């Protein structure tokens, strides 16, 4: 992985705007809402940090989130899982996950825990997340638009109905708590969630910790092919902003360390 992945100017590309009319404007409005809300979350973090961290610059995180030009947004699509990829019962609960963590199970079985997205931590400050939209692609198969004639009505994609809940209750986002328990995170449809990243952990000298998390597909079969869709907005400092005052490390230097960490 190259540092360019973290530092290049974010671009928005829609090859054929007519395929998703109004998509760009809606996407940018939602990202702006998430960043504006992240500013409020950052303000609350600053109040806590000012009390518990010596010589903390009050308002630091709010300023970083509000003024940064390096914040990234990513639309995430998780393809329907294949039945052969899922080896643990689809009824596995967070409590059962914790039991499995403390028992001897095969490495292949453990991989099923993060079958949609492997366990990781974000490297920024605050990550804003929307609730997930689950779509059964067996009844609503993805369609390829007629891009040869972008002006034709067939070039537009229809609105897809989504499920009120995932087909398998175990599907979704999980976090590792400080007590090493695995907790399933259910974000209500009309809410946002924020999780803390590694840069914030550095900025606050560990008072806020980066949250390890993963996404589990949950199950396949019964003729269903359920995909998961969500939006993540990664707020992060400018590259020259110092995030580790003890070591004098800037965010750009930290990004280089992250890039080298993953090769």
3D structure, described in words:
- By secondary structure, this protein is of the alpha+beta class.
- It has seven helices and eleven strands.
- The protein has helices at residues 4-7, 23-52, 60-67, 94-101, 107-111, 198-203, 251-261, and strands spanning 72-78, 117-120, 126-130, 133-136, 172-176, 182-185, 192-196, 213-216, 226-235, 242-244, 249-250.
- The strands form three sheets. Strands 1, 3, 4, 7 and 9 form a five-stranded antiparallel sheet that branches. A four-stranded antiparallel sheet has the order 2-8-5-6, with helices on one face.
- A hairpin with a 5-residue loop joins strand 5 and strand 6.
- Helix 2 runs antiparallel to helix 3 (60-67).
- The protein is globular.
- The termini are close together.
- Residues 87-91 and 100-111 have low confidence and may be disordered.
Name the shape in a single word: globular
Structural class: alpha+beta
The succession of helices and strands, N to C, reads: HHHEHHEEEEEEHEEEEH
CA-atom Rg in angstroms: 20 Å
Kindly, what is the distance between the CA atoms of the first and last residues, rounded to a whole number of angstroms?
5 Å
Residue runs with pLDDT of under 50 for 5 or more positions: 87-91, 100-111
**Count of DSSP H/I helices:** 7
Helix content: 25-40%
Assembly classification? single chain
Mean pLDDT: 82
Counting DSSP E segments of at least 2 residues, the number of strands comes to: 11
Largest sheet: 5 strands, antiparallel
Provide the β-strand percentage band. Answer: 15-25%
